[in-house]
Amino acid sequence: MTSLGLKIDGNEQAASNGATFERLNPITGKVATTAAAATVKDAKAAADAAARALPAWGAVSPRERRSILLAAADSIDAKVGDFITAMADETGSTEGWTRFNVGLASDILREAAAMTTQITGEIIPSNRPGSMAMAVRQPAGVVLSIAPWNAPVILGTRGLALPLACGNTVVFKTSEACPKTHCLIVDALEEAGLPAGVVNVISNAPADAGDVVEAIIAHPAVRRINFTGSTNVGRIIAQTAGKYLKPCLLELGGKAPLVVLDDADIPKAVAAAAFGAYMNQGQICMSTERLVVDNSIADEFVAAMTAKVKTLVAGNPVQANTPLGSLIDNAAGDRVEAMIADAVSKGATLVAGGRRDGTLMDAALLDNVTSEMDVYHHESFGPLTSIVRVDGEAEALRVANDTDYGLVASVFTKDTMRGMAFARKMESGICHVNGPTVHDEAQMPFGGVKQSGYGRFGGTAGINEFTELRWMTVQDGDIHYPI
């Protein structure tokens, strides 16, 4: 198999020491991708190339940047077949999930293209006569973008699109689990006319990740870091960035609650809960991890939810005949099974699912989960969700907020004003009334609070993350100085 190379200054090349690593298909165990394993020297070379490309790219007109991003969106759409193959091989994803990834990635590029003329400033009244004071936004510099494997086309594109729209150059560190999928995004950008060196791609063996990432963060030209991934790794990224005084945008883990109040439309709540909990085998940061259900309707809800979950079986995504595909690896299945065993041993009931064959695991549903159980607190990141029964709205709110995470939440009620009042009290960066927790749009300010991270991707909020705000003045007339 031909090794997938690094992309530095527009050239595909091997690692400086010739090293490679392999990504195995999670179902078959066969080699899916062989990729270059970058060294610290390679990481520095990628940042150097991005620094060299920065002045010219930062000076490109909004119209030209917009044209390239729009062409890249078309190219992403045209590569859907390549993405389907790559994601099935590297991450065990279903065709439906891949098509959703490609569609939203295309939207992200088009939205970023629209933002090229929205990087605005303002005139600020000055107390000094003859002085015109301005707040001006300009490119921050070189951006390090680190994307995960679970929604690889969406999150890889998100880490690139708005930084590029704002005039920055990028070092893109691909996921060790899906280097081929991530490189297809850069292929689309290059086909659209992106100049050499504007995006540079680094892939690395898992054992080398810490050294490679720190080398890029430490590089003097790197001015921003955006990372999407686990809270544990995000904490390391933030600590490293803090050592070098580099701002971060972090979108991390979640433990999303979907609250079902006593007046909820149960069929609608069940449909949203099943989609939110089990889409992509529950391997989404927004996945519904907790169903907080009022006791007065809990039996009816559990019966309906159980019937739905029993239909959500897993199979090989290449055969395209099941709603669920593969987990990322066997360790993910082991983790979910351990959470189920712990919960059942402490009084919970497995009411549906949980059958497993290697990395293929059917959707699982636990009832009567309490705070003594591991699954109540920890992110399962798999096809498992839990029902926590509560008495009344006050307890529902307390349980919904009883987590270290705060990415997304949802509440179901037939009373919209009641739902909005409840949503305002939920501790999350995103909240939906009568909608699923899994919901993303390119133009929205996407991000969390607490241990789900900080900063916002998307729209004008994202512009603030990837530009430097400067105070500039033009002074005219006679100025009196005190000395």
Report on the structure:
The chain is α/β, with parallel strands linked by helices and 483 residues long. The protein is built from 15 helices and 24 strands. It has helices spanning 40-58, 62-78, 80-91, 95-115, 152-165, 179-191, 209-218, 231-243, 266-278, 295-309, 330-345, 374-377, 393-400, 416-424, 459-465; strands at 6-8, 11-13, 20-24, 31-36, 122-124, 131-139, 142-146, 169-173, 199-202, 222-228, 248-251, 256-260, 288-294, 349-353, 356-357, 360-361, 364-367, 384-390, 405-406, 408-412, 430-433, 449-450, 453-454, 467-475. Strands 14-17-18-13-12-20-21 form a 7-stranded mixed β-sheet, with helices on both faces. The protein has a 6-stranded mixed β-sheet with strand order 9-8-7-10-11-23, sandwiched between helices. A hairpin with a 6-residue loop joins strand 3 (20-24) and strand 4. It is globular and about 80 Å long.
Q: Report strand %.
A: 15-25%
Percent helix range: 25-40%
Radius of gyration: 24 Å
Distance between the amino and carboxyl termini: 74 Å
Give a short account of the largest sheet.
7 strands, mixed
Overall geometry comes to globular
Specify the structural class: alpha/beta
Please provide the count of β strands.
Answer: 24
* Count of alpha/pi helices: 15
Low-confidence stretches: none
Q: Calculate the mean pLDDT score and round it.
A: 97
Lateral arrangement of strands in the main beta sheet? 14-17-18-13-12-20-21
